Amino acid sequence: MSTEYWRAKIWGLLHDPVLKALHNNSGRGGNSFYEQLEAMKPWIEINKIPEESAGKVLKNILLADYIASASDRAAIGSVTATINYAPGKNPDKGLEITHLLSGATQEFKIREHQTLITSSRKDYLAEKEQQLLQLIPKELQTADITDNIAQIKKLYWWLWRCLPPATCDLFNDSSLMLMPAETRLPDASIWSHVSMTSALAGALAGYDLTLEEVKQWPRNKPVSHPYLAVFSFSPVQELIKASRKMRDFWAGSWLLHYLSAKVCWKLANQYGPDTLLYPSLYQQPLIDHWLLQTYPEYQQWVNAPTAESLLTAGFPNVLVLVLPKAKVKAAMQTAQQTLMAEWQHISKLVLEELQNERYWMKNLDADHSTWEGWLQSQWQFYWTALPIGKEGEEFKISAAENKDQELQEWCDVQNKTYNLDQPVTGEGIKLFKDQELKLLREAYKKRWERQQRGFSANVGSWWGYIFDATRASLAAVKNARNWEIPTAFGPRSTISGIGPVVNPGKDWTTEGDTKRLWSRQAGLFDGTEQLNATETLKRGLPKIIGELLGVTDLQVSYPDLTSGVAGYLKVNQGQSEHENNFNQACQAIISRFTDTKTMLQDMRGKWGIPWRDKQNTPKQYHPRLLNSGWLVEELEDGKEFRIEYTQAWNQIISQYYPQNNPSSWYVLAAGDGDGMSEWLKGAKMKAYKEYIPSGLEVNLDNFPQFLKLKKRMGPSTHNALSRALLDFSNQLVPYLTECRYAGKLIYGGGDDVLAYTNLWEWDEWLWDIRQCFQGGKDPKDEFSNDGDYWQYKGNSQQLVDRPLFTMGSAATISFGIIIAHHSVPLAIALESLWEAEKKAKKHHSPEGAKKDAVQVRVLYGNGNTLKSTAKFEVFHQWQILMSGEEDSALFEQAASLWSQHPAPNSEAILPWTQVFCDRRDQFQNNQTAKAEFQQRLAAFLNLLFTTTQITHLNDEVENWLKLAAFVKRNRHIKIGGGR
Predict the structure, then answer these.
(1) pTM of the predicted model as reported, rounded to 2 decimal places
(2) Do 79 and 698 form a contact (C-beta atoms < 8 A)?
(3) Are 214 and 58 in contact (CB under 8 A)?
(4) Cβ(585)–Cβ(534) below 8 Å
(5) What whole-number distance in Å separates Cα of residue 517 and Cα of residue 503?
(6) Which of 432, 437, 483 is nearest to 460 (CA)?
(7) Is 522 left (phi over 0), alpha (psi -120 to 50) or beta?
(8) Core vs surface per residue 844-870: b (16+ CB within 10 A) or e
(9) E strands, 298-347, in order
(10) With helix as H, strand as E and coil as C, how does 876-938 read?
(11) pLDDT for the residue numbered 978
(12) What is the mean pLDDT of residues 610-632?
């Protein structure tokens, strides 16, 4: 590591004015305040800065700006026409900014707009930049920083993480996070652009660059070449899907998240957080947590993450980085070593907790084959990397018409490098298109005539294809793996059948020996299960997580299979009799089984549902009391008196809940954005004309034809997408799941959602999430959705005060939903959950429209399953169908009649619904209700008809009607007279 590497990155962050979007032509082309930084003095004093120096390495570093910008803006970057904030002809106007995927527009206008337009703009904005400079901590502006790598890196972290919020604070306006980097193509923020430029600048500078090389580059020494690298890891034993208990489910999700975050933190400290293109590390709770532990003085600009955010998983197991070629292999080794070291650290903490605090297997050695031996073989690693631009070729080439032969040959080389020369896969996408090439040449000619300077094409234009080729390369590496699961001597895990049961004995320990050892529960085990080391580590994780994160009194709370009762109480919170009946039922059970009172002490206030746990009212009871299985499992003599206890419990429950028990069903949801790989390589982008502001006037003959081309996904747009996805996963999804509804977000990362919800709210939550993902209208009207961004209309402690990114109207998401009876083991429910999500993604309409669907499965206690699959628009119509006061029997009758006499075609739907409704007794005295229900039923059936394959149509109609009956019937909780 060298100081020059970090100086190059600082230049990347400050090569544009921070407030560039607010400038007009008089100030837009300058730099920010990097020349005034003491850390940059070694370059400034020898007049070596990328914009002005002819030095070889500095010219290479300068390419970072060209690659990061021209690749996103394509030929638009070559035109001389401009778009200004508050233009002279219309000073009340701000900027028109566009959604980076859908192209939807909204106006960007700062709160200090009036002050800006009534002042000397250049002087006003220059003063603001100076005020930002003054905010840099004083110790980072002393003369001795020039050779202090630790301090320069600390300064870099401030500029990357603290400068954006400091800018917002200076203007008292959080919307400055949306300031576009390019007003002529305003779809990505200045923050994303400079972060990407910084990453490329570091890769182009080289990790070991010296000041002597900056002064004079050695003859014949090649300059650093940037690479796009992908690192991935996966467990040998599935940590999430094979979970048996909700605490294991949560622990598995969080473990993967934590290990990934730890790897990212290590790489960020070594190479800079901007190098992580995916996931974006900006405002990531764990990264902010460790940053504040390292630099506590940054708390003025970085809010300490909440406990809920620290305990919600969100990091993926695939990392994408921009690195210097020379450091790719070292970085991948660092990633692997970091994960293994942290995994070992967690195992050490868990074993110490078990042995020292819980007196469990005190004679088990940490290096025993069933403990460390198994844990050390748990992980598989994969990585690959490809060059950004063909090595040995120039990064850019002139667009001059007299250089056409050289340009074409250069393009052919780049196209071949990323497999775009193939007749099938490459045809139609290889660069450059004629329309773009013509515009480049015309713009070059015009610029040369006016400014005596031309324009170049560069390798960044291939960014989407570089990324896609890298993903394909990683897939090939994974497919070539030859890993085998280690041999387990002696008894295997009783819950997975994988890996040896943890025990202190020698190989070939008998089942009788391990059974005796595992009879001790230690407050974590049930006395019958026998776990391998991975499963034991997951079980012990909640006990050591506070120590792991360095947070005292960190309360870990996760839902169990009965926590859906919170949803029942929430939807009925206006009727106190439901809460009272629940409390009285729980007290009756405690009075009959007095040992439960002691057992519940650690659970009070820990339903695992934030909506419930955050309430200030006393919570003496837990919904587990409504579950007889828990009672029998936890009571010391429960197994011995299982029948007697179950009968006594049933008698009590039937007095308070004579029909349905609100704890009988649990609901899980798994969703994933559709075709994200297609978005990332630009295949789903719209034409350029959808992303440019309406006021852009370009006097070039070829410009209209160029605007018809599909926009590419360049590196800055890619970076903006990664950063913006955090709004959806870290802001909007947690709010909808845990504040608006009584659910728990298990994993929210990028476009992935894994959540625990409940029987009473799952459908409304699901539709809200889908609307949020697309930036559609908020069903509860708490958010506006201008420009496909959601912005909270009031004041919220959970949400930042600015428009929040959604994937936009052109994006879709598919979901699997499981409604499982409490007797269905969690492992079976999880297996079915991912199958449901896969089936939803495979759904396609008769016209071929794929995905954008949901499959709902009801897993009954007797082993039967009800499966209902449909497009999301049909699902919403099903919600509307269910919105009336009709009894569940009506839907059962409709399903029964359809199974016997289905409508033969769509034209017969209306007569079918008329006949059905005419024959229902419940409508005989209420014609209005009949007409309304018939209308809803006909609308639902018509939409299902047009979006469902004919071979599945009758089954889907019947199943959705059965699902409606099931939901209606089981949501009805009758309060008994037990009290």
Answers:
(1) 0.94
(2) yes
(3) yes
(4) no
(5) 7
(6) 432
(7) left
(8) bbeeeeebbbbbbbbbeeeeeebbbbb
(9) 318-324
(10) HHHHHHHCCCCCHHHHHHHHHHHHHCCCCCHHHHHHHHHHHHHCCHHHCCCHHHHHHHHHHHH
(11) 53
(12) 84
